[in-house]
Design brief:
The complex is a heterodimer of chains A (about 750) and B (about 525). Chain A is α/β, with parallel strands linked by helices and about 750 residues long. In chain A, about 30% of the residues lie in helices and about 20% in strands. In chain B, helix 17 packs across helix 19, helix 19 packs antiparallel against helix 24 and helix 20 packs antiparallel against helix 23. Classes of the chains: A alpha/beta (about 750), B mainly alpha (about 525).
Chain lengths: ~750, ~525
């Protein structure tokens, strides 16, 4: 192991940061001092306010972001070394070139210098910014220690695709955008490059040790893309028997066909499946599972993970869209991938006739494509850039048009720069009006200018500024959506990543939400985006149907590789957690019961506690036997969200009865709105109870209707009068509820 | 179906249940400092049994988001009525409900509330309340997005704590004297004054975050904050400080699902007095651990017990003492001569800002001068030098002078509070009954010739006697507080501890006597 003595931070500078604490408002809560990366802030026990040591401060402004009362200001420079400069490979001859364009960190010295820029923050915002929550300071510590195997161990806890994510992730709006330096409007640690350095210099390990947490469980995974890989890896590592169904003849989904070799080499895209099949995953290629067949599959397995992606391309409804030569990005990328991989086979474009664009000759004859066919790409996102750059490598002239203003377009600047350097003609504020054909084949694209004044505004077409462009192929690369059949069969998808309500205060406290638009993150709201991604990850842990989980693009619509992988992994964690069993293959265990209760005077809450004790009592081992009891958690109903529901094997809902004797009698208001907003309960056993003064009326029926409408399975329900509940002994209904939940026929 | 034990260990009881979360694995907070916590807060932590929120009905009331709205609403209605009637009602001040309720009843009640409970008025204040409704875009709900710019109050102003508020009180008092608003004079002037306060509050609420106006600018905040230390309301405090220190969410500061973050910038985990607790109940609602109680305490606890003595409070007390002395002195013939002379030179009518600010400043500086003399006479020669300006801010800086002046100012609070209360008594005893004919005037039944209009509860000598009794009570309270404070704060820094304690008691007694003598001279003047 090599250990180099490199300072963890700090540069020589004449000026130094100055921290000012407004002691009138400083409450001594120590939110800043516990999170200060350098220990520059300490508590003055005399005044119970904090003191700052300017000499130890590096100006990262973490204290400013974490102080709940805005009682700290920091002036002066940010003391951080310059970031490592990564070189790029610009192919001399673009034609048929598949060489990776982005290069990694070239030497240990550079890697150590970059690792030394990491502050090892006590509450690392980069970890929250990473959709998979990689322990970034952890693996950077390992790099500093010169131990790449240990770095892989750290990464393995949260990611099975470090070599891929480090290449394809848009780190600027994820981990690096959320780096303390970035939030302080400085230049973040090159986290992606360091992750890649680990993978470039030490092989990603396989599954040497397989656990037993899911031993005996048989799980099917539909789809072999990033979400499927995440799920399969987690399950096989826990000892489950995993079968993966893939409709294509090659595994990997969009990793194989969606991302060109010059961004993600084939060998790397193949690597996860080499490892997984070696670990015993049964990979069945060329085996499509229609959405309607998921139920059938469910009968043969203990659990199913649907990770089929969002494969339906969006098409622009313009005149001429039905002409020959109008493709979607999936088809183009698939064929281009095969063609480029085949070396000489540039048939895709060679088949195209020369147009009247003034360009003639053989496609690919010239790397600038001046005499090649013209490919018009609709869209300017990542997929569109991949299409255009692939077309350039096949000798075509590539034009990308996007109707958004360049200022607001969600395109990666580095991707845009690379495309421009390779000769792609990217035109923002431009849209396709209609296509004209010759002999049934697309020939002319009529383009129009658009105008967009703000990011939230829909671009509008400017009349009278149209241009006609001769084209040979039009590729629609505007994005994808989930196939309607899946939406219909699963329901509730795509899940929105927009989260309402008060943000999680742990996230708020970390400071990730304080700088809403860091410069390095292209002024994107990194904190808000991270919370949205986290919400989607948590939702992936919730079964959508009985023993069926959905993850990746199939759950949230088109997103990123790392998000899909993290969701797949989380869905698998939920399966290992719940230990589902298909009928006839063992009993379903109810190890965790969640009691969600709304209480006004305390009566309903007391009943909930008594029920919790009764459930624990039923699960308690007989005298003399060893073993822990089932876990029962009682929470106020408004504190029960998706994460809590994903944890529970069974649910109890209790409410006091609202209304005036006979008028408007029903569940209390918070219970009503909570039930109405329930996510799918996927046949979860549910017990219902209410406490009433005069009459429960239709309270239980109303609760049952809502629970069943959300897929819950009501196994028992009880109305308990306040008179009964006020006695010292638990009401008899409590015992019946506990018995009913346990499936006791006597109940 | 059987109920089985979970395969892995359960999550900690205070953690919400959930599937594995990889984030906490990477989090390694520095350990928060705990040493010195017991010594720092033991004197100011209220008795656990004095937690009103332990009673379920009180707890339910405090959790109700409509509570503060319902407290504010009646005052809101009254003050909009005051504005309307002041502009549209009778011009006879004593018959106008707006002026009658504002100057004969409300001002007196505010002082009673501050002396007994502390910041009770702040919990129901219609000025901040109205602006806060607009800022939050709701009457009572927990909303996410606020209206306005949400700026932070500039640090160069905020560092002086309560002093800006005292400054605005002095300014408002000058305006009130200059236009004879509280006389009461023309009722429209009262309306315009109230409108001015409401408008100022609204502007501050729309420009700055939280209750910046209430904390730093409100004319009454400095007065209520400092004098309110006499009260029995301890405010919302932690039930278990360890829970607060370990809390990773700080919902009481940042805002949680059920409550906003403290609008007053107070953390119950470190609150040691009722100085900046506006009793708004937001922290109680927001706390996820049910770890906040509403405590009461013996009177004067927030004067005597705090170990952290704030310089802004001391200077606020000195300035408020200067102002109330001015208000007494300006009823004397000597002042009338001086003011008349100055008016002749400057052509600015009463109160001439030169003598107004001059006398207030003079009295405050005299107070500080006494502190300086005491520090010179009794300060130990080996006291550490003053802390450098950069090391601590204005509020907490230490010096030989401050080590005597600041504790002395805290000890004097009961005299100052009693003096302000006594100043309101003549109007109350002479004119409070006018509230009835002023209501009758809405219906055409009020008259300046009615019995109630001319009824006095007490004669002038009786009023003076009550005033002196109030001052006497305040002086006794101040003597007791000063004795306790001096015993703890001055003894360690005094070369002659007994002498220092006796001298400070002498100063307090002198203040009480001075105020009493001036009341005799004023002869119940309003």
């Amino acid at each position: 192991m090599t250990v180099l003595d490199i300072p963890t931070h700090g540069v020589s500078s004449d000026a130094s940061p100055h921290v000012q604490v407004l002691t009138d408002r400083c409450a001594g809560c120590q939110e800043c001092s516990v999170r200060c990366p350098t220990g520059a802030i300490t508590l003055d026990a005399e005044t119970w306010t904090v003191l700052a040591d300017d000499a130890a401060c590096v100006g990262c402004r973490q204290c400013v972001r974490t102080c709940p009362f805005s009682a700290i200001t920091v002036d002066g420079p940010v003391l951080v070394e310059p970031r490592v400069q990564l070189s790029q490979h610009h192919p001399e001859h673009l034609l048929a070139d598949r060489t990776e364009t982005r290069t990694g960190i070239g030497s240990w010295a550079e890697a150590l210098a970059e690792a030394a820029r990491c502050l090892d923050c006590p509450d690392p915002t980069c970890v929250r910014g990473c959709p998979a929550h990689n322990d970034i300071p952890g693996f950077i510590r390992s790099i500093r220690a010169g131990d790449l195997d240990q770095a892989h161990e750290v990464l393995r806890r949260t990611s099975v695709l470090p070599d891929i994510c480090s290449r394809v992730c848009d780190q600027a709006v994820q981990c690096e955008g959320a780096c303390t330096w970035s939030l302080g409007d400085s230049v973040p640690v090159a986290i992606g490059a360091l992750e890649r350095f680990i993978c470039d210099n030490a092989p990603v390990p396989g599954f040497d040790q397989v656990g037993t947490a899911a031993a005996g469980m048989e799980v099917a995974v539909v789809g072999s893309g990033p979400a499927g890989i995440g799920a399969a890896a987690e399950l096989v590592a826990a000892g489950a028997s995993v079968t993966v169904y893939e409709r294509d003849d090659e595994p990997g989904g969009l990793l194989r066909w969606g991302i060109p070799d010059f961004t993600l080499p084939d060998a790397l895209a193949r690597r996860p499946w080499d490892v997984l099949t070696a670990a015993g995953v049964d990979l069945r290629l060329g085996h499509p599972i229609a959405e309607a067949e998921v139920a059938e599959l469910n009968g043969h397995y203990d659990a199913v993970v649907v990770a089929a992606g969002a494969s339906m391309p969006l098409r622009l409804p313009v005149g001429g869209a039905e002409l020959d030569g109008v493709w979607d990005a999936t088809r183009f990328l698939n064929e281009a991938h095969a063609a480029l991989a085949g070396g000489a086979g540039l048939d895709v474009l060679r088949r195209l006739p020369a147009t009247g664009s003034g360009m003639s000759g053989t496609p690919g004859g010239d790397t600038d494509g001046a005499d090649g066919p013209t490919v018009l790409v609709l869209g300017a996102g990542n997929t569109a850039m991949d299409v255009a750059r692939s077309a350039r490598r096949m000798g075509a002239r590539a034009i990308c048009v996007d109707w958004m203003d360049r200022r607001f377009a969600p395109v990666r600047p580095d991707e845009l720069e690379e495309a421009a350097a390779e000769g792609v003609d990217v035109r923002f504020s431009t849209t396709l009006e209609r296509l004209e054909g010759e002999d049934g084949r697309v020939a002319v694209a009529h383009l129009a200018r658009t105008r967009q004044e703000s990011a939230g505004e829909r671009p509008e077409v400017v009349a009278g500024l149209g241009v006609a462009e001769h084209v040979d192929l039009v590729v629609m690369a505007m994005g994808y959506r989930i196939v309607p059949e899946l939406v219909e069969s699963v329901g509730g998808v795509p899940v929105s990543k927009s989260v309402g309500g008060v943000p999680d205060r742990r996230w708020q406290g970390s400071g990730i939400l304080a700088n809403t638009a860091p410069e390095f993150a292209r002024h994107q709201p990194v904190g808000k985006l991270a919370i949205g991604r986290e919400h989607a990850r948590v939702v992936a842990g919730l079964a959508r149907q009985d023993r069926v989980w959905v993850a990746g693009d199939a759950l949230v619509g088109p997103s990123t590789v790392v998000e899909a992988m993290a969701q797949g992994k989380h869905a698998a964690e939920a399966i290992v957690h719940h230990q589902p069993r298909r009928p006839g293959h063992g009993e379903r265990a109810l190890a965790r019961v969640l009691v969600a209760v709304e209480s006004r005077s305390g009566t309903t809450a007391r009943c909930a506690r008594q029920l919790a004790e009764a459930i624990s009592g039923r699960s308690a081992p007989e005298a003399g036997e060893a073993g822990p009891e089932a876990e029962v958690r009682v929470l106020p109903i408004d504190k029960v969200g998706v994460a809590e529901l994903a944890w529970a094997d069974a649910l109890v809902v209790g409410s006091w009865v609202e209304g005036l004797v006979v008028a408007k009698v029903g569940p209390a208001r918070a219970t009503r709105s909570w039930l109405a907003a329930l996510p799918p309960l996927a046949a979860m056993p549910v017990a219902l109870f209410c406490t009433y003064a005069v009459s429960p009326g239709g309270t239980l029926a109303a609760m049952r209707a809502e629970v069943e409408a959300h897929g819950g399975q009501v196994v028992v329900e009880e109305a308990i009068s306040r008179r009964q509940a006020s006695r010292s002994e638990p009401p008899s209904g409590i015992a019946r509820l506990a018995a009913g939940l346990a499936g006791d026929p006597a109940s | 179906m059987t109920i089985l034990a979970p395969p892995e260990g359960p999550p900690a009881a205070d953690e919400p249940p959930g599937l594995p979360d990889p984030v906490p694995v990477a989090v390694h907070f520095r350990p928060p400092r705990r040493d010195g916590m017991e010594e720092r807060f033991s004197a100011t932590d209220p008795d656990r049994s004095w937690d009103l929120a332990r009673h379920p009905r009180v707890a339910r009331l405090l959790r109700d988001r409509k509570l503060q709205f319902l407290l504010i609403l009646p005052n809101q209605l009254i003050f909009w009525l005051v504005i309307m009637l002041g502009l549209l009602g009778t011009v006879v001040p004593g018959l106008n409900f707006g002026t009658a309720i504002t100057w004969y009843i409300w001002f007196c009640l505010v002082f009673v509330m501050m002396a007994v409970v502390g910041r009770a008025w702040c919990a129901m204040c219609p000025f901040g309340g109205f602006a806060e409704w607009i800022q939050r875009r709701t009457f009572w709900q927990r909303t996410q997005k606020t209206l306005g710019l949400g700026r932070k109050f500039p640090e160069p102003l905020a560092r002086y704590g309560l002093i800006l508020s005292v400054g605005s009180f002095i300014l408002l008092t000058w305006i009130e004297e200059f236009f004879n608003i509280a006389g009461p004079g023309n009722p429209a002037a009262t309306s315009l004054m109230v409108l001015g306060i409401v408008s100022s509050a609204l502007i501050f609420f729309l420009v700055f975050e939280r209750r910046t106006f209430c904390r730093y600018v409100c004319p009454l905040s400095g007065l209520i904050g400092s004098v309110g230390a006499m009260g029995t309301g301890a405010g919302f405090r932690t039930r278990d400080r360890e829970v607060c220190v370990d809390c990773q969410t700080k919902d009481c500061m940042r805002g949680g699902d059920d409550g906003f973050g403290c609008p007053w910038y107070t953390w119950p985990g470190s609150a040691d007095s009722n100085l900046t607790c506006g009793l708004c109940t937001e922290c109680y609602k927001a706390c996820p651990s049910d770890n906040i109680g509403l405590f009461v305490q013996p009177p004067l606890t927030s004067v005597v017990a705090p170990t952290r003595r704030r310089a802004d409070v001391a200077w606020a007390v000195a300035l408020l003492w200067g102002l109330v002395l001015f208000q007494q002195v300006n009823a004397t013939n000597v002042y009338a001569s001086v003011d008349g002379w100055l008016t002749g030179i400057t052509h600015i009518r009463y109160p001439n800002p030169i003598d107004y600010l001059g006398l207030i400043g003079l009295f405050a500086l005299a107070f500080a001068g006494i502190g300086w003399v005491l520090s010179q006479a009794f300060g130990r020669s080996d006291l550490p030098p003053s802390s450098p300006a950069a090391s601590r801010s204005f509020v907490d800086r230490t010096s030989r002078f401050r080590s005597f002046f600041v504790p002395l100012a805290y000890g004097v609070i009961p005299v100052v509070g009693a003096d302000y209360f006594a100043r309101q008594l003549p109007k109350f005893f002479k004119h409070a009954s006018r509230i009835v004919p002023s209501v009758g005037a809405w219906f055409g039944h009020g008259s300046v010739h009615s019995t109630l209009y001319n009824t006095r509860m007490l004669s002038n000598p009786e009023i003076v006697a009550v005033q002196i009794a109030v001052i006497g009570l305040g002086t006794v309270a101040a003597l007791w507080a000063t004795w306790k404070i001096a015993g703890r704060d001055l003894v360690p820094v005094a070369s002659h501890p007994v002498g220092a304690r006796v001298a400070t008691l002498g100063v307090v007694l002198g203040f009480g006597v001075l105020a009493s003598v001036l009341y005799v001279i004023m002869h119940a003047a309003s």
